[in-house]
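Q: Here's a chain of 390 amino acids. Please give me its 3D structure as tokens.
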Amino acid sequence: MRKLLVLLVIIVVVFACILFGHSLIGQKGYVLIALGNTTIEMSVISALITLTLFLLAIRFGEWALRAIFSALAGSRKWFGVLSQRRQKKAFYDAINALATGQLVTAKKSIARTFGGEFGGVNYILAADIERQLNNDDNVVRLLEAAHTYPQSEETATIQLATWFTNHAQFQSALDALKRLPKNTRKTKTLGKVWLTTLAGLKQWHLLKDKLAEFKKVLGDDYIVWAQGATQGEFNAIVSKQGANALIQHWQNLSKTARSDIANQRAYLQLLIEQGMSAEAEPILVSLSGKQAKPVFYDLFKMLKHPNPTKAVATVEHWIKNDPQNGDLYSVLAHLAANSGDDQLAEKAVTKSLDLRANSQDAALYASLLENRQDFKQASLVYKNALSGRA
């Protein structure tokens, strides 16, 4: 638009000169300029020429100053259209070199774009090149430079935070994430960076808040993160206050929180790991109910205390309703073995292996055979397990 206006002004001036310029020729009028004791006298034509040259000098001076400041600031725009074309070519050369694995060439090419009008994208590309060259200090510096451009602010910040989390610099990652604009779009990538950062800092309450924010975009990963957050929170309680404090914390949770399967699994697993298997058994049986729930199978296998009668009765009830389910026999076998009932364990595990091959069950069967001194059969079971025929 500006160029169009300037062009129109030039056209009007040219036409004016053509129409009225001849009338100035031959005129004897003059222009008198008095500066103190100095007097300057010139014709109208001379005055017009002088004024034109003066305006041109001002314009040239303005252009020169901009060129100097741009050069000092690192910009190459003052080289004109030719420089911009060279920068664009260097940018494309860098992309092509990076795509073909020529990292050193890509680095040299992208360096020629610095200061150009790329909205910071060139710095992001340069950071990726430096990352692949293992120049860690340069990665941070270039991403920080990209962050100063509004067009690249979000991307540069997320990549910077990701780089920090990959290097276990979680506080630096959190500081970077806090600089994100409030209207930053919630994506799965951003959600994972936030959650990884907060998990690294063991800020479990904040992590749960972020989980709620990113629940929709996380999809199936939400359950994994939710369980991890609960596990971390419960671990922190146990390490600082002990298992009894965890029990008290569980009882103080809301009904909704205690109904969450991720919370239930984390709580029961910690009780068992803390040597409170007998206390975990009735809770596990109650939560499992009359219908088999595969989500709890591994916890039944973890129970390790004498006479887990309630747990055994529950699993046997499930088997009665589904007698061809090898996984249920496996659960019973491990549960019986952990309680010292080798006879029941061997009976269940052989049935489990008859229904389907399983290396874990084969290893259990071999150990049971060793317990009763049948080393030859145990060796055969081990070999079959290693060959995939268990």
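Q: Can you summarize the key feature?
A: The mean pLDDT is 83.
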